[in-house]
Amino acid sequence: MGEYKDRSIATIQHDVEKQFKEIEKKNGMWIRDDLEIAQAGIKICWAYIHAIKSDKSINYGGWALEPLTKLQWVLQKEINTMTDAELFTHNKDQIYKIANRIDNAEREVLKRLGLNNTNRDSRELVKKSEKKHNGKNIFIMEGGSNLTKQTGNLIFTKESNPVKIHDALKGLFKDPNQVYQIDYSKCTNPKIKAIMSKLAGTETCYLRYDAEQKTYTICNKDEKQLRNRAYIWEGVRLIPDGVRQWTTASKSMNLNAIKDKLDSNDINKKSETYLKNNETLKKEDFNRLFSGKEKIRQGRLWDCYLITTINILSRSHIFEPLIRTSVRIVQWGYTIRLPLWEPHGKTISIKNSELDAAAVQGNIWYKILEIAYAKQTTGESIITKDSIQKIRGGRASKALQTLVGKNNIGFTTLCGLTKKDLASNSASLISSETDSQNLPIPYSPKQISQIKNTLKNYQLAHWTKFIAVSSYPAESDQHFYKIEGKQIFYRHAYAVLWVEKDSKGNISRVLIQNPWNKDDKNNPNNGKWDFSLSFENFLKAFPLMDIGNTTRKIFDWKTENGDLSIADNRRRRIKVSKYQKIKKS
Q1: Is there a contact between 255 and 219 (Cβ–Cβ < 8 Å)?
Q2: Residue 347, SS3?
Q3: Cis peptide bond N-terminal to 339, omega within 30
Q4: CA separation for the pair 69, 49 (Å, rounded)
Q5: What's 109-154 look like in SS3?
Q6: What is the pTM of this model?
Q7: CB 378 within 8 Å of CB 387
Q8: For residues 533 and 510, is the Cβ–Cβ distance under 8 A?
Q9: What's the rounded Cα separation, in Å, for the pair 155 and 142?
Q10: Helix (H, G, I), strand (E, B) or coil at 29
Q11: pLDDT tens digits, 124-143
Q12: Is 480 helix (H, G, I), strand (E, B) or coil?
C-alpha cells in the first residue's frame, strides 16, 4: 500500500458509521446502539493499526501505536459496563464522539511514528560515528535510550571537543546541499557559544557543507551564508529535521524555504503544547462551531479585507489552537480574547442577540469573529446593525494583526505604483471593455523576485505565511476589469490560497479566492469565487500585496517583559531579568 496518511474527522466518522451499520445488521435491533458504536470504534482502530503495520516505509512499534491500542482497551472497558437495556437515539452524536477520540489517538500515533523515524535515523548516525571514530562517541542521542524522552536530536560530547566539525561529520551526511539546524544554547564552552551567537545573531542557526572550503559553515538569522566555519563543543545540539526532510529536494530548495519549514515546525509544536495546557474550548465544540468554512461569504458590509483575513487564517495549522485557547461558551453567548491566544489580551463578551448584527453569511464562527473585531476596533460595547458599519473598508494586514497580535504577525506591504499611477491605470481599465492582459506589471524586479520566492515557499510554510492582495481602486466594487477572462472587482481584497508549480518547480498558476464566494456554474469566469491566474497575470491584476509571516514569538509561554507564566492555565509571577532574552522553544 502507499504511504499512510492522516485521516480527516469526516473520513473517520464515515468509517465508524459504516462499521456500526454492519454490526447492527449482523446483531439485529436488540443490542444497545452505543455498545455497537463502541464496538465499531474498536474495529476501526484495528483497521488503522493494520494499515500502519502494512506500510513498510513506517518504523512502528508498541510505543508508537499505544494511543490507538489504549483507546481500544478503554472502549472495551466501557462496553463491559453497558449491561442494562437502553433506548438510544442519538447515533450521530455518539458516532462523532467515537470518531473524535479515534482522530485524537491517530494524531498522537502519527506524531510518535515521525519521532520513531527520526530516532531511527539518529541512532544509525551514532553507530556510524562510533565506528568511524574507533569506538568514541562524538555525539549521543538526546534522551538516551528512553523512547519517551528521545527527541531525535544529537548532542556533541566531550569527545568532540578536540575534533573539527568536518572530521566529526565526514562521511555521515553525503549530500553537500543539505541544510541542518545547529543549536548552541547549551554549549558548555562560553567562548564558542558567544562567538557563534554573535556571528549568526542567534543561538540557533543553520549549518551547511561548503564544498569550496571543504568544511561546514553557518548561515545567520537573515539566511545570509557566512564563510565562517562552525565550531562544535560539548552540549551543542544537531537537529536532524533539516537532514531528513529535505534530502530529496535539497537541490531545488533555497534557504528561505528551509527556514519556513523550521519556523513552521517550531510554531506548530509550541501551539500543540500551549493548547494542551490552556484549552478553553473543547474540540467537539470547535468542530461544531467552526466547521464549514467553504460555505462562508462576505455579506452586505464592505469588509472584504476582514473576511479575506479570516478566510486565510482559518486554513492555517495554528487556527484551531488560536481559537480553542481564546473562545469560551457561556450561558448568554460567547467570550473571546483578542489578540487570540494571548493571556493578557482583552476579553470581549458577545451576546447571542448581537450575532444578528453580523453581516457575514455562513456558520456562526465567522459571525463571532466579525463582531469581536468590530468591538475591538470601534470600542463599542454593543454591536448593532448600525454600529457595525464603522468597520467598512480596511487593510488585511491590520485586520490580521488585530486578531493575532502585532508581535506575532509581521507584514511586508508591496506596492509598485504611486497613487497617481494607480488612479491612471484604474481610469484606463474602466474605459476598456477588452481583456486587460496588456497592463504593465506594477512591481519592480526586486519586488517580483520577493513575491516569487514567497509564492514558491507558500506550501512549505505550513500556512504560517499569509498573502492577501488588492485590486485597483475605483468608486465602486461592483465594477470590474478582466484578466484571462476572469472578472477582477475594483477596491476589493482577495486571498491567495494555493500555488501550482510545473515539473521544474516554477510557478504556473496562483489560486485566488474572492470573499463573496458565490459559485456560479453557468458563469465560472465571473470572478466571484475561486479562480486562478498565471504568475505574470497575477502580478498585473493586483497592484497591492500584503505578505504576512507568523513570528516565533507566537505561543511563547512568557511575555516579553518576563513577568508572566501561563503554563497550566494559571498566572503566577516569575523573576526574569529585563536584560535576559526569552529562550526559544
Answers
A1: yes
A2: strand
A3: yes
A4: 8
A5: HHHHHHHHHHHHHHHHHHHHHHHHCCCCCCEEECCCCCCCCCCCCE
A6: 0.53
A7: yes
A8: yes
A9: 6
A10: coil
A11: 888 888 888 888 888 888 88
A12: strand
Q: What cell does 294 get?
A: 467553504
Query: b/e per residue, 281-312, with b = 16+ CB within 10 A?
Result: bebeebbebbeebeebbbbebbbbbbbbbbbb
Beta bridge partners of 208: 179, 217
Say how many C-beta atoms besides its own lie within 10 A of residue 81's C-beta.
8
Residues contacting residue 583 through CB under 8 Å, at least 6 positions apart: 185
Q: Outline where 203-303 has alpha helix (H).
A: 241-244, 255-278, 283-289
Residue type, 75: L
Residue 454 CA: distances (Å) to CA of 247, 259, 316, 483, 553: 21, 12, 16, 23, 21
pLDDT of res. 427: 61
Which residues of the chain carry a pLDDT beneath 50? 1-2, 221, 241-255, 258-259, 262, 431, 460-461, 557-585
CA distance linking residue 22 with residue 528, whole number of Å: 43
CB 129 within 8 A of CB 172: yes
pLDDT score at 425: 65
Pure H helices in 179-253: 190-200, 241-244
491 vs 477: CA distance, rounded Å = 5
